Amino acid sequence: MTPVLRSVSPSRALAAPLLAASLLAASLLLAGCGAESAKGPPQMPAPEVGVVVLHPQAVTITAELPGRTTAFLTAEVRPQVNGIVKQRLFTEGGEMQAGALLYQIDPASYQATYDNAAATLQKAEAAVPSAQAKVDRYRGLSKERAVSQQDLDDAVATLAQAKATVASSKADLETARINLAYTEIKAPIAGRIGKSSITVGALVTANQTDMLATIRQIDPIYVDVTQSSLNFLKFRRALSEGRLANRGDSVPVRLILEDGRPYPLPGKLGFAEIKVDESTGTFTLRAEFPNPDRLLLPGMYVRAVLEEGIASGSFLVPQRAVSRNTKGEATALFVGKDDKIEQRVLTVRRSIGVNWLVDAGVADGDRLVVEGSQKARAGQPVKPVVVVLDESTGEVKRADAAAGTQLAGNGTTAPRPGVE
Q: What's the helix, strand, coil split of the chain in %, to 5?
């Protein structure tokens, strides 16, 4: 039987090896994917967080209280005699020295009264020598019984009357001199004088209710502030329990002006009122401040910062690191010894600037998370980086040089120049 020969297409002959190669490649790819799946997803590195190390310190406890400035001395100028004002001898709003002449009242009638009193005194004094000589003569004659005792007694009485008239005339003369001096109205104290309520030509009367002007001494100046009796009791309790150390009688005071700026010169506490206002439950504290530039004027609203005492061994926790839980408790994140995040509840007493004064929940050497807390959860391992906070604002300034990093503007860390 003759065999049958069949021809094979060249394209089909090439397709067979290519198909085999494709199947081999696919099997190798599937094997590689299976190996990668067995290893699992790649491990994420521990997030970096900025921390500050807490240490106990002596904290100055202050109280910020509202107050008003009050003149150190105040004198209301009023006339003490009647008359027409002839001159006003000061500039309104100017500085006056004690004894400076302010007003001149017409002195004509008072000068005449003074002159008359002086003449009356001279007349009274002229009668004394004659009466004295008569008494001396009668005493000698009385010893010789040349005059009666009655005549001697009359002469002695006349002498006494003459001397009494002299004394009365001297008093009248002094009264006239005082009234004449009162026609010159002078500044009773040194200080700044206000506006004048009368003009030249006005009639004034002795001890009138309307004052002519007011002089206020404002260097130094007083600041009267109010403190609640409740805060006073808390302060005394803290002293008795040893949580505060008293600074003694000399309590420093600082001022914050109406525009929020601090007053440059410190003051000192003067006295505390011994009675509590029944309607408000407060009492008054008075502080004294130097005022050489006359920056403080009477009646200005200020806030006084009083240093109540020193709390030793206290912890200050930045407010930016503290939050509240659902119970309203203050909480913060800490980095433990194993570099894992811990969440603690803090006992907060009060605010001190941009910090909280904490009584419980912290210990010496604790690392408090102040930056990157949104990336950290309780129990999560982290990479702590010690940072430095601005004392006035509480913002992160930089990372500690020993950590080898510095904090970038977005709160993340970036390599410091020259540090690997």
A: 30, 35, 35
Distance CA 53, CA 367 (A): 5
CA distance 416 to 409: 13
Alpha helix positions (H), 144-242:
149-182, 229-240
Q: Beta strands 48-53 and 383-389: pairing type?
A: parallel
Whether 212 and 86 have beta carbons less than 8 Å apart is answered as no
Q: Which amino acid is at 414?
A: A
Strand, coil or helix: 259: coil
C-beta separation of 181 from 207 below 8 A: no
Distances (CA, A) of 334 to 60, 306, 329, 377: 26, 33, 16, 10
Sign of CA dihedral 78, 79, 84, 90: negative
- 297-310 in b/e form (b: 16+ CB < 10 A) is ebebebbbbbbbbe
Low-confidence stretches of the chain (pLDDT beneath 50): 1-16, 18-19, 28, 30-31, 34-38, 401-420
